[in-house]
Amino acid sequence: MKNLYGKALLTDPGFTKSTAFTREERERFGLRGLLPYEVASMHKQIERVLGSMRCKSSAIEKYIFLNALLERNQRLFYRTMIDHIEEIMPLVYTPTVGEACKEFAHIFRKPQGFYITPEDRGEIATILKNWPEEDIRVIVVTDGERILGLGDLGANGMGIPIGKVALYVACAGIHPAQCMPVMLDAGTNNVALREDPLYLGYPHPRIDGATYRALVDEFVQAVQLRYPHAVIQFEDFLTPHAFEFLERYSGQVRCFNDDIQGTAAVTLAGIYTSCRITGKQFADLNIMFLGTGSAASGTAELAVDAFVKAGLSKVEARRRLWFIDRKGLITTANENIKPRIKPFIQAHAACSFAEAIDEIKPDVLIGATGVAGTFNETIVRRMAAVNERPVIIALSNPTSHTECTAEQAYQWSDGRVIFASGSPFDPVRYEDTVFKPAQGNNAYIFPGIGLGVTASAARLVTQSMFLIAAEVLANTVTESEIRNGSVYPTLTRVRDISLAIAAAVCRVAMNEGLAESTLPEDLNSHIRSLMYEPDY
After folding, report:
1. 81: which of 38, 88, 109, 311 fits an S-S bond (Cβ 3.0–4.6 Å)?
2. Which residues act catalytically here (predicted)?
3. Does residue 411 sit in the same domain as residue 276?
């Protein structure tokens, strides 16, 4: 227990067992008199945690309570989260984390994570030495400019890396001491935040251009010096920056962008699974995207790889993918098309969103707009008119920004829709059937990717790793889950799913000559042995 003793041991969040210390341990570590009489098991402690948490009247109060638990007793927090993940995950991450980020400076209790500002330029490698852990394997970094669908939240966006790290630990067993949340606090253009007297971030307009890129460059290079085995996960960067940094660094260091690649993999997995319900062949699908940001374009690019794997040429694959923006269908007549969307331009007459559904008859409709209500009754009913079982995936989160609710999708499609969303929804009763809509949660993907890269010591994170992750995830969905209307597995199995994805990632790393670790034949047993189990 790193030579901790007495009160120091009792208050260390990584090593304390609180009231679970045994009589012998209380004697050995100088804890007699510092604890109540009872030796309480972790199970009993979890009961107490759940009872206290469930008494809270709002999700944000539960978030604050759980964050306080994490700060004082890591093992108890993670054991509670793992054993009750369907209840806890929406409180630790989406949708509650959106509100937590908006209120971050006002609910701040104790520093978590690592902050870098423009004033640290030239010294980032030096100040990284202030972080107490030496063996970091996963870094989640944001600059807070595009937090979920909420926009520029500056340093308040630190809630995202903190939440993602919790998911790495709970969903894939990466040890908490090997995870690091980072805020590249480059300022904020959110004037209301800068004028908030409680705001904790760098209180200046965002740096941009070469100055901003130099800050990111220095951070990435400093990580290579300080933590050469770490994989960097870019999170919630503005779309142009997200793609720029992915292209800039992905061929040089271990890194990926979850908004682009993680979202793409989980969405593709949902499409794969939907084919088991509709009876359609994946290679025959037409897929339509509402939105042209990182989630939509990233999913389209991964779908091209999936179509090619299914036997299509790249040209044929791109013809199966259609984009809608505010003006309607994106065609060769459009101007100012984003670079990532240009390969998907279609030679088709201009038409509205609703008209495009009638004419193209997409099998799958994906929303990635961040704008609530864009899948209105007209759109859903038209999808139902051209498909016996329309597939609608509303990716935007938090829940207040989703393109349509689960209830709307089932009602407007007469109960025929195959629905998934980026935010969680409660079961929906339509006539005599209860549907359990699936959440396309990136937690199914990125923890397993990180675990696989860590286990194999892969030099790079490649697109083929996300493609195989999508296939693995889709194959884990059971027939009973499908009968309930879900295209994703229950979250209770997420650690096993992460293990399966990690093993597949290791095989890709070996096949592509990227693995720097020598891996045993029994990959599953080896990877499971690496996974953190928070027990006393």
Report:
1. 88
2. 93, 164
3. yes
